[in-house]
């Protein structure tokens, strides 16, 4: 893998527990907004949107069943020391940390608190 890969939940999903209502993942949607605002920076990242229901097969293949909560950023190289490790694949699954890494590694603006 030559580029970082970002898994997000595809927006506009339904939850069988609450039929008739469309949802977005608030954590994924924060990142979606950043990607949409700076598409030229997003070109350097492979982004894959997966359906809401579990199991999320593509995510499981990449980082294991226990790490299928999204978003998750898989790091192609130079992982930070706090990155998780699944069979040699380094990744980060906390939204705030993903946003920090996108700023550090890809030049995205930082969120202002």
Give a structural overview:
- The chain is α+β, with helices and mostly antiparallel strands.
- It has one domain.
- Helices cover 31% and strands 21% of the residues.
- The chain has 4 helices and 7 strands.
- The chain has a 5-stranded mixed sheet with strand order 4-1-5-7-6, sandwiched between helices.
- Strand 2 (13-14) and strand 3 (22-23) form a beta hairpin.
- The longest helix is centred in the first third of the chain and has 12 residues, at 26-37.
- It starts with a strand and ends in a 7-residue tail after the last helix.
- The mean pLDDT is 95.
Strand arrangement, major sheet: 4-1-5-7-6
**Number of spatially distinct domains:** 1
Separate helix tally: 4
Order of helices and strands: EEEHHEHEEEH
Distance between the termini: 33 Å
Mean pLDDT: 95
What class do helices, strands and sheet pairing give?
alpha+beta
Give the low-pLDDT segments.
none
Helix content class:
25-40%
Shape: globular
Over all CA atoms, what is the radius of gyration?
14 Å
Q: Strand count, sense and closure of the main sheet?
A: 5 strands, mixed
Number of strands: 7
Strand residue percentage: 15-25%
């Amino acid at each position: 893998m030559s580029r970082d890969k970002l898994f997000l939940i595809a927006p506009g999903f339904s939850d069988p527990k609450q039929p008739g209502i469309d949802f977005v993942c608030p954590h994924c949607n924060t990142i979606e907004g950043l990607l949409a605002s700076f598409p030229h920076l997003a070109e350097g990242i492979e982004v894959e949107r997966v359906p809401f229901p579990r199991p999320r097969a593509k995510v499981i293949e990449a980082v294991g069943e226990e790490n299928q909560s999204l978003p998750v950023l898989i790091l192609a190289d130079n992982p930070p020391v706090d990155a998780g490790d699944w069979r040699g694949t380094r990744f980060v699954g906390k939204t705030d940390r993903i946003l920090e890494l996108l700023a550090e590694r890809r030049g995205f603006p930082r969120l202002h608190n």
